[in-house]
Amino acid sequence: MKKHHITHRIIEQLPTMVAYVDRDRLFRYVNTSYAAFFDLTPEEMLGKPLTDVLSEESHQRIKPNHDHIFATGEKMEFSDSVTFRNGHKCFLDIRYLPEFDEQDKVTGIYVLVEDVSDYYASVDVMRTIHEVIHKRGRRIDPASIDELLKVGVDYLGVDIGTASSIQNGTYTIEWVQTAKLDFSAGVQLPLATTYCSVVLKANHLIYTNDASRDSRFKEHASYQTYGLETYIGTPLIINDQVWGVLGFARKNKRAEPFTELEIEMVRMMGTALETVIAEQKIRSDLIRQRDDMALIAYTDALTGLKNRSAGMEILEQSLVRQHGGQGFVVSVIDFDHFKTINDTYGHDIGDKVLIAGSEAMSAAVRSSDSVVRVGGEEFMVVLAYADHESAVQVLERVRATVEETVVTLDSGEIINPTVSIGASESRADDDVSSIYRRADQALYKAKREGRNRVVWASESDV
């Protein structure tokens, strides 16, 4: 017994949690650290069974380990998630050291416990952050930010997490995760009334667990407006410029101040968000540049209409839709006596006529139709989902609207352009060349018959 007293006096000085249980699974010794873990004193635990502190599920899982040690006398080390009677759940590193009597029979087990919950939680959070950022490969998208904010809210035990942009003194919540505070993405607030303004002033990560007593917050408009006691936030820097702030807040004080681990986690999360936002910005810029280039490539510089390349693609797409039973009409349009206009008034005036005529055609068609400048004075209108009767009405309106167009010269002279139109309905066996050729042949008929009219391809036209 004297040996035990000496051993226990030594153990009492250790920060490690140590207990000794006998074969009946009763506590025969616990050091102060062990008892304090359960908010008890050693005296309150002595002689009590393990089941007084462990949940039934955890006891049943651990009991076979005890049985094994009492039967074999082997040491044992393992890590496990343990739930206690009070509902508290921890991840523990556990070592079992058997004690023997003179006959080498195991009389009890020394239990050495280390609470590694924070460590494993932090590892889990870091793993989650890594997975969120990298699980999509290079396909990072803004949904990653929502996931990261949720991780932060859960891990930090706060009410809200936001990633907000700052532009021209306006604070905009771009992403938010909250179940307890009434904020949503897209909300804009005056920057001076936000906790983020305190972060920007400091220009580095800051945190508080008691804003009412923190000199940076207690007199600040942010605390006066929202009264959030707990806050941690870090600037988000994109291309060496402050883009915004990552912030987490709670209405009430947390039970414990932010740990170094939690602070580092928020820093890491800020870096992760910067990566996501920067890559998204690069992707958006590239998409915009691509779209701009595509627009230029498919737009006629003079009239702003779709050009020949775009027109041929529209025909291709219309033919694909036709296989689903959706017919269409193609018309080829040519300005009458346009060479005479150019020769008489010059190409500048000719261009004005084309511009005015193209605007007239665009105004006359339906929103589902496409007006294309094929080249020179030749145009094409593709009428989507059109039967013969509705197409006749649209094309006659196009012809009449151009005829009503007035181009007034500096001299006061007036030009009233007219157009000839050839049209063809689509057929089941059509390709781009065949349907365009029929419409073009109908256009020549319109010119031969006196111009300024709509002529339809006949059934016999090939």
Task: Give a brief rundown of this model.
The chain has helices at 2-12, 32-37, 42-45, 56-72, 117-134, 143-156, 196-202, 221-226, 260-297, 308-322, 338-345, 347-364, 388-403, 432-448; strands at 17-22, 27-30, 76-83, 89-100, 106-115, 160-167, 170-178, 188-190, 206-208, 230-238, 241-250, 328-335, 370-375, 378-384, 407-408, 414-415, 419-425, 454-456. With 462 residues, it is an alpha+beta fold.
Sequence stretches where pLDDT stays below 50 over 5 or more residues: 136-140
Quote the distance from N terminus to C terminus: 114 Å
The dominant shape is elongated
Q: What's the β-strand tally?
A: 18
Q: Which strands sit side by side, in order, in the main sheet?
A: 8-7-6-11-10-9
What summary fits the major beta sheet? 6 strands, antiparallel
Helix content: 40-55%
Describe the protein's topology.
Blueprint: H1 2-12, E1 17-22, E2 27-30, H2 32-37, H3 42-45, H4 56-72, E3 76-83, E4 89-100, E5 106-115, H5 117-134, H6 143-156, E6 160-167, E7 170-178, E8 188-190, H7 196-202, E9 206-208, H8 221-226, E10 230-238, E11 241-250, H9 260-297, H10 308-322, E12 328-335, H11 338-345, H12 347-364, E13 370-375, E14 378-384, H13 388-403, E15 407-408, E16 414-415, E17 419-425, H14 432-448, E18 454-456
Parallel strand pairs: 17-18
Antiparallel strand pairs: 1-2, 1-5, 3-4, 4-5, 6-7, 6-11, 7-8, 9-10, 10-11, 12-14, 12-17, 13-14, 15-16
Helix pairs in contact: 5-6, 5-9, 6-9, 11-12, 12-13
